Amino acid sequence: MKERTEIEIAGYRFKDEALLENALTHSSYLHEHVDEAARDFERLEFLGDAVVDLVVGEELFRRFPDATEGELTALRATLVSSAALAEVGRRLGLPERARLGRGEEDTGGRARVGLAASLYESVVGAIYMESGLDEASALVRRTMGDAIAATVTAPRKSPKTLLQEWAQAGHHPLPIYRTLDVSGPEHRRDFVVQVEVAGNVAQGSGPSKRVAEEAAAAKLMEVVTQ
User: Fold this and answer.
1) In whole angstroms, what is the distance from residue 118 CA to residue 108 CA?
2) 13 burial class (0-12, 13-18, 19+ CB within 10 angstroms)?
3) Which of 79, 135, 140, 169 could join 131 in a cystine, given CB atoms 3.0 to 4.6 angstroms apart?
4) Taking the model in full, what pTM does it have?
5) What SS3 class is residue 99?
6) 165 and 74 in contact (C-beta within 8 Å)?
């Protein structure tokens, strides 16, 4: 019988080695090792994604008491983007520990941004499954605390500004905003605005055109930074 060993990641010690093994297993590995009973990390990644969103959202909610929903959404989108989470995953050495298939390995899969980000979320999901939300939240705060703290001292930018900067950084045309609907009496108007950039579209609503545009930009930031 294989002896179980405890393995530590970022201060958390796994008791179930098989669970951690699943969190570090890419689907390409299982395609080439069909006799193994292990699962790939995708289900744990799904769970970890929700935990990371919750913890980062709560931290921003506490640290920015005057921020609007749109501003909080845009800040969170930046912090939980694939690029940001990949940086955390690489810092923890997760890509080096991943189990990849030979084909994925040979085509540079270990260096991909998406892999490092997915591994980080899957490890968070595994900790949640093994020890619950408190332990998973603690790991997120330990590993993302510096990035979250940096948002407090950095000048706060509106979702529209962040979306425009994202478009410019990717050499895309600037976002286009269109008012789709205006309803309600004069003193209680509701605006619905659509924003489009680089083939991505989102809608937002609010009591003014400006607020609706910010809401739409915040939603689109969540899409383009995943």
Assistant:
1) 16
2) exposed
3) 135
4) 0.74
5) strand
6) no
Q: Which of 106, 114, 103 is nearest to 31 (CA)?
A: 103
Catalytic, out of 45, 59, 121, 222? 121
For 93-103, what is each residue's pLDDT tens digit?
999 998 888 88
pLDDT in tens, 174-219: 999 999 999 988 878 899 999 999 999 999 888 889 888 988 998 8
Class of domain 7-153: mainly alpha
159-224 CATH fold: Double Stranded RNA Binding Domain (3.30.160)
Question: Which helix (H) or strand (E) element contains residue 200?
Answer: strand 200-206
Asked about 58 being catalytic, the answer comes back as no
User: Distances in Å between the alpha carbon of 126 and those of 61, 74, 91, 184?
Assistant: 25, 27, 18, 48
Exactly one of 21, 40, 45, 49 is catalytic; name it. Answer: 49
User: Tokens in use for 200?
Assistant: 């991505």
d(CA 25, CA 46): 14
